[in-house]
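Researcher: I'd like a candidate sequence for this fold, 111 residues long. If you have to choose between options at a position, lean toward the conservative one.
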């Protein structure tokens, strides 16, 4: 198995950088970068950056395919997290009182 994958950025091969130039004089091309698969982006740490050479390439991909990605798991209703809101009085650096709001996540499942 190769330790590299090709960047999935749809415009990666159009970026005019030295490391993308391949070929001999008269037939040079700009080529998509390879992304090294190592301990930081493979196995249990596999994530979106495992297939992109840069955040720019990831953003190009996400912007181009956002509708298709959302169609995989569309959100049809809002998600909610149960919380408690606690108002506390505290004092600032100058010993002036102010009200601080704390939001605490509540586990309604008894666990």
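Model: Candidate sequence:
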């Amino acid at each position: 198995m190769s330790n590299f994958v090709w960047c999935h950025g749809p415009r990666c091969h159009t970026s005019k950088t030295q490391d993308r130039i391949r070929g001999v004089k008269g037939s040079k091309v700009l080529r998509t970068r390879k992304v090294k698969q190592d301990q930081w982006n493979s196995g249990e740490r596999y994530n979106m950056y495992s297939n992109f050479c840069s955040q720019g390439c990831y953003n190009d991909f996400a912007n181009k395919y956002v509708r298709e990605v959302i169609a995989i798991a569309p959100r049809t209703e809002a998600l909610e997290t149960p919380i408690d809101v606690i108002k506390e009085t505290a004092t600032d650096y100058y010993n002036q009182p102010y009200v601080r709001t704390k939001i605490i996540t509540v586990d309604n499942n008894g666990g």
